[in-house]
From TrEMBL:
The keyword Membrane applies. It is a multi-pass membrane protein. It is found in: Endoplasmic reticulum membrane. The keyword Endoplasmic reticulum applies. Belongs to the nucleotide-sugar transporter family. SLC35B subfamily. It comes from the Eukaryota. Keywords: Endoplasmic reticulum, Membrane, Transmembrane, Transmembrane helix, Transport. The chain crosses the membrane at residues 21-42, 62-83, 95-117, 147-165, 177-196, 217-238, 250-269, 281-300. GO terms for cellular component: endoplasmic reticulum membrane; Golgi membrane. One of its GO terms (molecular function) is UDP-galactose transmembrane transporter activity. This is Sugar phosphate transporter domain-containing protein.
Length: 347
């Protein structure tokens, strides 16, 4: 009799365990699918706006980068305000106003670069973001990094360098040389701003109790205010309004872009909360690859064999970096648990 009861309990437990596994798998597919779809759509819309041709003769282009980033920051601020609810942190508003400056310049320069370079180049170039963050974190936030971290970063640098290499012939010596255009320089400046933003954010986390949604809200709020001032002072707002009157479809494109960005942030936060940073890093790395593939499929940006190899090298480096970062965090947690258990035994 007892044996039958035990067997029925085991069966119920197994059913519950299977249901939990399937529920988690479905949730992971939902998070990953949402992230990939949102940022694939974001990439398609962003490229269609910045690379699109307007007018009957197709000679007019969208050049109102401040307006584009303003709409994106404003929607992000509204979305973050809703998500943060009543939660607050103790970070001074003045600090957020400072970090918003570098955050804003990073967005403007990376978007402006799209007027000079192909979209896959911009996406892959922005994958170098860990490099300036490491450098600035080491210099200004007193952070230290493992040797394996440097190896992963070197792999990313090599891959990006291979991708950006232009076989420009030097007429003097008849040899191929490495050259950088204005778009690549804007991308480099954007990475420097990313490093500055990362270093300031590290300092903020060290000195204050930080709420992720509050940081997102204030950074986008101040960026929106700065951009509004810039739009008025430069007169771009009025030129943008004229462009909108001529091509009203751009309004839907801009709001679609901002909505995709905000929803993508929601899926990323949900993934980090429910599955951890490693899973999130793998998904966000994959979404960049999907963005490049989307650009190739929808806009005909064909990659050479060298660029395809470089793309594989970069994303391999990013995945290894994500896995190594997770291992380090796990090791640190184990050490803390062991130290606390030793202290408890001594007490």
């Amino acid at each position: 009799m007892n044996g039958r009861i035990d067997d029925s309990k085991k069966t119920e437990d197994e059913v519950c365990a299977n249901e939990t596994v399937w529920r988690q798998a479905a949730n992971l597919i939902f998070c990953a699918g949402g992230t990939l779809l949102c940022y694939l759509w974001f990439g398609v819309i962003q490229e269609s706006i910045t690379k699109g041709k307007y007018g009957s003769d197709g000679k007019e282009r969208f050049t109102y980068i401040q307006a584009l980033v303003f709409v994106q920051c404003a929607i992000n601020a509204i979305f973050a305000y809703i998500l943060r609810g009543k939660t607050r942190d103790n970070v001074p508003i003045r600090t957020y106003s400072i970090v918003s400056t570098s955050y804003l310049f990073a967005m403007i320069t990376s978007n402006h670069a799209l007027q000079y370079i192909p979209y896959p180049t911009q996406v892959l170039g922005k994958s170098c973001k860990p490099i300036p963050i490491m450098v600035f974190g080491f210099l200004f936030a007193n952070k230290r990094y493992h040797f394996k971290k440097f190896c992963c970063v070197l792999m990313i640098v090599f891959g990006v360098g291979l991708f950006l290499y232009k076989e420009k012939v030097d007429t003097t010596y008849g040899k191929s040389v490495f050259s950088l255009g204005f778009g690549e320089l804007l991308l480099l400046l954007s990475l420097v701003m990313d490093g500055t933003t990362g270093a300031i954010q590290d300092r903020i986390r060290q000195q204050h109790t930080v709420n992720a949604h509050s940081m997102m809200y204030y950074m986008n709020l101040f960026s929106s205010l700065y951009l509004l001032i810039g739009l008025l002072l430069t007169g771009e707002l009025f030129d943008f309004m004229v462009f909108v009157q001529l091509y009203p479809k751009i309004i839907m494109d801009l709001f679609s872009l901002a909505a995709a960005s905000a929803l993508g942030q929601f899926f990323i936060f949900k993934t980090v909360t429910e599955f951890g940073p490693l899973t999130c890093s793998i998904i966000t790395t994959t979404r960049k690859l999907f963005t490049i593939l989307g650009s190739v499929i929808f806009f005909g940006n064909i990659l050479t064999q060298r660029q395809s190899l470089a793309t594989v090298i970069v994303f391999t480096g990013l995945l290894l970096d994500a896995i190594e970062s997770k291992k380090k965090k796990t090791t640190n947690k184990v050490k803390l648990i062991e130290e606390s258990s030793v202290q408890n035994k001594l007490l």
